[in-house]
Specification:
Layout lengths: L2 E5 L5 H11 L3 E5 L10 H6 L7 E4 L2 E4 L1 H11 L14 H23 L11 H23 L12 H10 L15 H10 L3 H6 L1 H11 L1
Parallel strand pairs: 1-2
Antiparallel strand pairs: 1-3, 3-4
Helix pairs in contact: 1-3, 1-6, 3-4, 4-5, 4-6, 6-7
Length: 216
């Protein structure tokens, strides 16, 4: 039975879709709305009351949270070699990095993009946004230092952590006061390499086209 993925452009669902492409397993996209001021479908809300994406559905089961879905798919499809096995030495760093991306890096983005979640009043929201910009510089520097001379995020092997890193770099918006990916050379090197994968070219076709046109 195919997977079903609740999906919206410019969301974390794109990262999960890349993983599904890498796995080579049949899936169906269920487009949904991520505008926080607009209503969600009842089926979507029944699976994730937050109204967020991605939500992965298979058989009679469903789950949300991008990092959790990433770990689940990697472990359910070990032949894809997108994650170290549980007894491999890189396993700890792989899990640590995915959770850091989810709980720390994404949180820094939220400070800027959703300041109302962190401020008591609309008047104090700009302070949360400024903190978000500073926090993004801090957390991406930590990732850049962690990568160091590694070929990929967790060492010499490509993994889902590299896909997750690429996904997060596409959210960086220097026009909002956020750092540019160029400020983190190791991150940019890996993001550029990930962008060459057929799965990423397919899923991020529109985003890549926008970047190419902007540079041109």
């Amino acid at each position: 039975m195919a997977y079903k993925l609740y999906y919206a452009p410019d969301s974390a669902a794109l990262g999960v879709r890349v993983i599904l492409e890498e796995i080579g397993y049949e899936y169906e996209l269920l487009p949904t709305n991520i505008d926080m001021d607009a209503p969600r479908g009842p089926d979507h809300l029944a699976l994730n009351p937050n109204g967020w994406v991605p939500v992965l559905v298979w058989e009679e089961n469903a789950m949300y949270e991008c990092a959790a879905i990433t770990m689940f798919l990697c472990d359910r499809h070990p032949a894809s070699q997108l994650a170290p096995a549980i007894d491999e030495p890189e396993r700890g760093l792989f899990l640590q990095t995915l959770v850091y991306f989810s709980s720390t890096v994404q949180n820094a983005f939220q400070l800027d993009y959703y300041p109302d979640r962190f401020a008591d009043t609309p008047e104090t929201e700009p302070s949360a946004q400024r903190r978000g910009g500073r926090r993004l510089r801090e957390v991406w520097k930590i990732i850049d230092d962690q990568i160091g001379d590694n070929t990929w995020v967790i060492g010499d092997r490509f993994s889902a952590a590299d896909i997750y890193l690429f996904m997060l770099t596409t959210w960086l918006a220097p026009s909002r006061g956020q750092p540019a990916v160029d400020a983190f050379p190791n991150v940019k090197r890996i993001a550029d390499a990930v962008m060459q994968r057929p799965s990423v070219k397919l899923v991020y076709e529109d985003w890549i086209s926008e970047q190419t046109n902007r540079m041109g």
